[in-house]
Amino acid sequence: MLSPSLRLVLALALTVSSVTFLAVTLNAANTREIAPATVTPLKAKILRRKDKMNDKLSAEELAELRRQAAQDRNEERELEDTTPKHVPIKVQIKKEKEQAFKDLKNEHWVRDLEIEVKNTGTKPIYFLHLQLHLDTLDSEGKHLAFVLLYGRTELVDVAVPLKPSDVPINAGETTPSLSLNGS
Q1: Which of 38, 95, 131, 134 is exposed most, by the fewest CB atoms within 10 A?
Q2: How far is 90 from 77, CA to CA, in rounded Å?
Q3: Residue 100: beta bridge partners?
Q4: Phi and psi (nearest 5°) for 26?
Q5: Can you give the pTM of this predicted structure?
Q6: Other CB atoms closer than 10 Å to residue 1's CB: what's the count?
Q7: Proportion of the chain above pLDDT 70, given as a percent
Q8: 34 pLDDT more than 60
Q9: CA 79, CA 103: separation in Å to the nearest integer?
């Protein structure tokens, strides 16, 4: 004979497992009804080290696949400017290079990328350090990033005096261009 407390525990366990089973079954049935009959699988090439070739997809790799699929549907590469609103600059792709950057078939888009920075403030800008973070993952699963610089790097320290050779971006002016290839 089972004690009353053990009966209660068994009844609760049976109830919880039954509710869980029903919830999972109903959710699976609803998913099948909503999902289209033909779902196109995501296909892409993921670069990995040899010792990781047969591993399952990580969360980052799966996110990258989904991002690439969404980008393929858009049919063009996009640049998202996440510069804080209080920073007095406007960043954009140079008009002549915009099509080459957006073209998903362009394997050399990094070489073609040129950024223009407009000083929307009232004071001259002598130094800029911009970071370009990509959604693309490298072979170790880390996001790629590039740094774009304008001006003398010593000017990071505000105590460093200006030199006559320091060329500012004056208020309302735009830089000639910043590029990843060093020009």
Answers
A1: 38
A2: 19
A3: none
A4: -65, -40
A5: 0.55
A6: 4
A7: 70
A8: no
A9: 12
Q: Where are the extended beta strands (E) located within the chain?
A: 89-93, 114-119, 128-137, 143-150, 178-179
Q: Phi and psi dihedrals of 98, rounded to 5?
A: -60, -45
Buried b (16+ CB within 10 A) or exposed e, 130-156: eebeeeebeeebeeeeeebebbeeebe
User: Where residue 47 falls among pLDDT bands split at 50, 70, 90?
Assistant: confident
Strand partners, 145: 133
Distances (CA, A) of 69 to 42, 136, 162: 7, 13, 48
- Phi, psi dihedral angles at 177 (to 5 degrees): 175, 150
Distance separating alpha carbons of residues 128 and 126, to the nearest angstrom: 7
User: Measured between alpha carbons, how far is residue 38 from residues 33, 34, 35, 108, 115 in Å?
Assistant: 12, 12, 8, 35, 42
